[in-house]
Write a structure and sequence with these properties.
alpha+beta; 2 domains; D-amino Acid Aminotransferase, Chain A, domain 1; 5-stranded mixed beta sheet
């Protein structure tokens, strides 16, 4: 479940800014936007652009964000304005828009995908995935926006959100498969270096040797052999998790690994087209046995008894040398629940510290 959109909302409340007479606060879902005093009135239509989207600075709606640095686009994050966090950007709704419209395309807003550090051959080569195995793309929506999908009395598990790269692994009964969140990757083992010939800018014919091929996801299997052991013990069950290390998202998110080292922490299992509940994955030996690393669990209990903001904003202490926490993930402990519009009920709560990083 993940939908990138810019929704037209109706302003329901305008709050006084406690530290600035010229500013006001507009609540939007579980976010808030700090705006100029008088910019919006209750009942006005506005377009809310969530953090981690980028806007085109040449458009009149966003020219005030241009700092003269020659950039074409600006990434929206969370900023503090006189002590109050302001998430993303709230602007007047486009002419003719109605409440509930998605105006992302109309406003030329694009979702921000953070750059990775592995690039090149480490990204691997795409290949066909396993047949007759359901392994959907893994995405989570933000808790601040969709918190109403959970009930206060729900029994939940809250785990650390590791900032790495999404991975999925499965043994189809004959061979292993490894992939990113969108693409299955070819196993580089046995792939020999090859020669390619091309014409350079000077018109000269050049021959180069390319390879040997490498791939981050297969390297994760090589360095963490328990992944393949677990998959072979659970044919056609898809193991989802995060590959992490300094060569994935940079030194700020090394999680105790050195250059060239890759860790893998599991966070979900899909079997026969069904998500295994988080509690079952963690507690049932049928799944937990041999699963040597899972994302750290910070809380198990009723949602009403946990402060998600406090957990998300806390310094990371569960990995050597790591201080920044990207956020947390909230899942039901046992019986999975599905929403007719948004699918499986599982959400992420991203920290302000991470969102404010440029």
């Amino acid at each position: 479940m993940s939908t990138h959109e810019v929704k037209v909302i109706r302003v329901e409340e305008v709050r006084v800014h406690p530290n600035a007479d010229a500013l006001e606060i507009i609540p939007v879902w579980g976010y808030q936007a700090v705006v100029r005093k008088g910019q919006f009135q209750v009942g006005d239509l506005a377009a809310f652009i969530e953090p981690d989207n980028t806007v085109k600075l040449s458009r009149p709606e966003f020219q005030h964000l241009d700092k003269g640095k020659g950039r074409e686009r600006h990434r929206l994050t969370v900023v503090r304005l006189r002590g109050e966090p302001s998430y993303g950007l709230l602007i007047k709704a486009p002419e003719g828009a109605v409440e509930g419209d998605d105006v992302m395309e109309q406003l030329e807003v694009e979702h921000y995908d953070p750059p990775t550090f592995f690039g090149g051959t480490k990204a691997g080569v795409a290949t066909q995935g396993p047949e007759f195995v359901e392994a959907p793309v893994y995405k989570l929506e933000n808790f601040r926006k969709y918190h109403r999908l959970f009930n206060p009395e729900d029994e939940v598990n809250v785990s650390v959100k590791i900032h790495g790269t999404n991975a999925r692994f499965v043994f189809d009964g004959e061979k292993m498969h490894a992939g990113s969140h969108k693409t299955w990757k070819r196993n580089p083992n046995g792939v020999e270096p090859r020669e390619i010939t091309y014409t350079n800018k000077e018109g000269e014919e050049v021959t180069k040797v390319i390879g040997p091929e490498s791939c981050l996801w297969w390297e994760a299997i090589r360095q963490n052999p328990w992944i393949e052991d677990w998959c072979r013990a659970h044919p056609k069950a898809v193991l989802y998790g995060e590959v992490y290390g300094p060569n994935v998202q940079g030194g700020q998110f090394a999680y105790g690994k050195k250059n060239g080292e890759y860790g893998f922490a599991a966070f979900d299992v899909m079997e026969n087209g069904r998500w295994i509940s988080n509690g079952e994955m963690l507690d049932n030996p049928a799944y937990s046995e041999g699963m040597k690393e899972v994302v750290p669990v910070l809380f198990r209990g009723k949602l009403s008894e946990v402060n998600l903001s406090e957990l998300a904003e806390a310094k990371e202490t569960l990995f050597p040398g790591q201080t920044i926490r990207e956020g947390v993930v909230v899942k039901l402990n046992q019986a999975e629940r599905f929403d007719s519009k948004h699918g499986r009920v599982a959400l992420k709560y991203v920290s302000d510290v991470y969102l404010s990083m440029k």
